[in-house]
Amino acid sequence: MIDALLNFDFMRYSLLSGILIGFIAPLIGAFIVVRRLSLIADALSHVTLGGISFGMYVITLLPALTFINPMWFGILFAVIGALLIEKLRTSYSNYQEIAIPIIMSTGIALSAIFISLAEGFNQEIVGLLFGSISAVTISDLITILIVVVIVLFFILTFYKELFVLSFDEEYSKVIGIPKWIQFVFIVIVAMVISASMRVVGILLVSALITLPVAITMRLTKGFKQLIIWSIIIGEISVIGGLILAFYINISPGGVIVVLLVLLLMLTMLYQKLSTYKHKGADTDEN
After folding, report:
1. Cα–Cα distance between 95 and 241 in angstroms, integer?
2. What b/e sequence results for 118-140 when a residue is b if at least 16 CB atoms lie within 10 Å of its CB, and e otherwise?
């Protein structure tokens, strides 16, 4: 692994990208899960795939645009999809969850159309679906770094407002938190999902956003602790997944998610054993 990092640029790009993604995905995931919007990651990931496949199709039509990274098309589509989800949630105030399947199905439909039109990108599409170590380029790494800076700036600047929005959206309206903060947050979510797909894959990116939070929720109580430990678990799973994927020679996305699922199962088992011990101790005392 060390030799590969020293000798191959794509390995360094993948590892650095993975470390950055392992940081921002669980960070934004803490706010998403608390707001009960976990499925939004799935919807936006499919919209992102539609944007990337559209970018690939445009490049096949206009070869002069090959200098443009298709990821930027994915980010653009994801941002538009995020804004549409928020608009639909406002329109269907009593059935807000309906916005997510509407946008998800639209994203899947667009992906199917543009993947069919963009011939010659089959291998790259597979890498986007499940993640790929060799697919990460310096352009992707720079894009991910830009997204990380934007995410950190936004969360550090509006942490209190996001905290209130996450736990009580109605109360946030009462105290006058600007509605644009909520819109920008959804856009930030879209950017994180788009940035994460190269390493984790479109079909699995939502797991990296939600599973570290799901694991940590069983172990911590405070929100800041939730964020910190979610990030730690996210980093362990991404770095471990990339190393294992390199040696086994498979897509890293699946390995990362399996590691997270195993951690979740171990956490649940630990909790059950702890509960059993406590009950046993109480029985002995009685």
Report:
1. 38
2. beebeebbebbbbbbbebbbeeb
Spell out the SS3 assignment of 87-110: HHHHHCCCCHHHHHHHHHHHHHHH
Helices assigned H by DSSP within the chain = 2-7, 9-34, 40-61, 70-91, 99-117, 122-130, 138-157, 159-167, 169-174, 179-200, 205-217, 223-248, 252-285
**Which amino acid, residue 207?**
A
Here the CATH number for the domain that contains residue 198 is: 1.10.3470.10
Give the highest mean pLDDT range of 49-58, 61-70, 105-114, 232-241: 232-241
Q: Is residue 237 within 8 Å of residue 255, measured between CB atoms?
A: no
Phi and psi angles of residue 72, each rounded to the nearest 5 degrees, phi first? -65, -35
- Residue 286 DSSP one-character state: -
Report whether 87 contacts 80 (CB < 8 A).
Answer: no
pLDDT of residue 262: 93
Other beta carbons within 10 angstroms of residue 201's beta carbon come to 27
pLDDT in tens, 141-193: 888 899 899 999 999 999 998 888 888 777 777 788 888 888 888 888 888 88
Distance CA 53, CA 47 (A): 10
Domain, as residue range, for 39: 2-285
Q: Is 178 exposed, middle or buried (0-12, 13-18, 19+ CB in 10 A)?
A: exposed
**Cα 55 to Cα 211: distance, rounded to the nearest angstrom:** 30
CA 284 – CA 218 distance, rounded (Å) = 27
The total domain count for the chain is 1
* Single-letter amino acid, residue 2: I
- Span 109-122, pLDDT tens digits: 988 888 788 765 66
Stated pTM of the model = 0.81
